[in-house]
Amino acid sequence: MASQTDPLLLHIRQRLQTAANETDRAAIRRFFRETVTPCGVKATLVHELTRYALPILRERTPAARNRFFEALWKSGLYEEGMLAVYLARRFTRDCGPCEFKLWERWIDRYATNWAHCDGISMHLIGSAIAQNPELAVQLEAWTASPNPWKRRSAAASLVREARQGRHAGLTGRILERLEGDPASLIRKAVVWLRRERGKAPLTRARR
Q: Fewest Cβ atoms nearer than 10 Å: which of 21, 82, 159, 201?
């Protein structure tokens, strides 16, 4: 894990703590049914910190970046998790099986709300699948996971692919497996994926 004396980590946490307030903290909590632990800052600050951190992280090795992301996740704070997603998605150009497994672990360990789950799924796991289509088949097994966020990820990770008409058979099987799920957060993902799949013919027509 990144050292707690990492100047970048210290800067980010100082900025978050300075800007934290109960009004934004309460607003973020109202946005979720599940329990979240926000620092309590506006989204604009998280995006500003993303822009600040990006050139610094570009100078680090992939292993060092991943340790930094892990440190953000381990804080348990909503904003630091979102920052990890926003930054990691800037390094998805050459992602493959190793990154796929890393992001799967993030789902297993850290996804406890729909924003974190969908961010990891759509922008990270989805990017790995777009570049390595053979990875998509692993999602089918996730539909049987006892972790509801991993079941949701099985659907959310295919949203962009389904929109393009790719992995049609797999998408259909995942929808079938999840449509009777007792958790509302899964059923909502089913509706979402089915809606995006329905856009595929129009997308192809515009090409």
A: 201
